[in-house]
Amino acid sequence: MKLRNSSILISVLAMAGTANAAEVFNKDQTTLDLYGEVQGMHYQSKDESNQGDRSHARLGLRGNTQINSELSAYGRWEYEAKLNNAEAGDGNGQHTRLGYAGLKFGTEGGTFDYGRNYGVMHDVAAMTDVLPEFGGDSFETPDSFMTHRGTGMATYRNDNFFGLVEGLHFALQFQGRNDKTGSNRNLLGANGDGYGMSLSYDITDTLSAAAAFSSSRLTAGQKQHLNIEGDRANSYAAGLKYDDEALYLAAIYNQSYHMTRIGNGAAIDGVPAFASKSENLEVVAKYNFDFGLTPMVAFVQSTGKATAFDGQTVSGALKKYVAVGTNYAFNKNISAFALYQFNLIKNSEADKAIGIATDDIMAVGMLYQF
């Protein structure tokens, strides 16, 4: 059986859609910006689980207020609605992506915030998560420890190392336990207390490097029902990127333990939901032409191993593909894209049984953002 920039702070606070935010309030040193996007996208694939409409809409608010000359406060909320659900649906397509509040301590003291935010592992993963679709998905999953968006994140960030080292940025993060009954979480979305750190350095104006690690306690339910040996889920990542506004190149490498999901994440046929160890590699390249066209290519590979319930060690590809496509920006608000994902995992009924994708996917869509 096979298994299947000037700083990090700015990149996290100014994710896609915020660059074109509209100011809706500005009074007494308090501002409020509104931003959002609507994406119409369709998947074409032989795999029924990756076939059909994938459209969504997002709306966000971002506020800042000056408390005194050395202290300011900020907050952000972002909501998403899936557009492929029936109007009489159960509402599962609507959710809060981000929601946090924090304080900024002068120009060199850094920031501290708490709420639903990005985990520090995303500070590295964001380097290759730059395509309209695909990429950035070898080890990142929302509500999977500190790899992506998650709940209960307390984060301190500092640029230029308190003003002492230009271009050196770091983040410290703690995540509280999330496994309460009634919180709409299953074993895959649960986590114990965790901590992490990221570090990045701007080597030149166009070249930067980053590294991150995180460690989270596994919950009692995860250890009992998912056949996980050990007490913690750990992850380590490093990345390098080159960006001169026209040419963009980036590569990341990650090792994760009890953290990368196997296929659909269900413990099927004696295989646990998380790989005991995974190695993940992502490489991306794109070029922005002056007239709005951006061709792009990405390679993503995730390999893992796990101990089955019968004690047998199994290993293989969790994900492996090449994505090729292009994006055309009509202006800063509207763009169209088409990408084709060439799946490099051989068609296997064993892979399909545990939810590992083995078919190609074509994604086409348009994005309007403000």
Automatic annotation (TrEMBL):
CDD domains listed in its UniProt record: gram_neg_porins (cd00342)
Family: Belongs to the Gram-negative porin family.
Protein name: Outer membrane pore protein C
Alphabetical keyword list: Membrane, Signal
GO cellular component: cell outer membrane
The organism's place on the tree of life at top rank: Bacteria
Signal peptide boundaries: 1-21
Membrane topology, as annotated: Multi-pass membrane protein
Listed InterPro entries: Gram-neg_bact_OMP, Gram_neg_porin_domain, Porin_dom_sf, Porin_gammaproteobac, Porin_Gram-ve
Organism per entry: Biostraticola tofi
Keyword Signal annotated: yes
Subcellular localization, as worded in the UniProt entry: Cell outer membrane
One GO MF term: porin activity
GO BP term (any one): monoatomic ion transmembrane transport
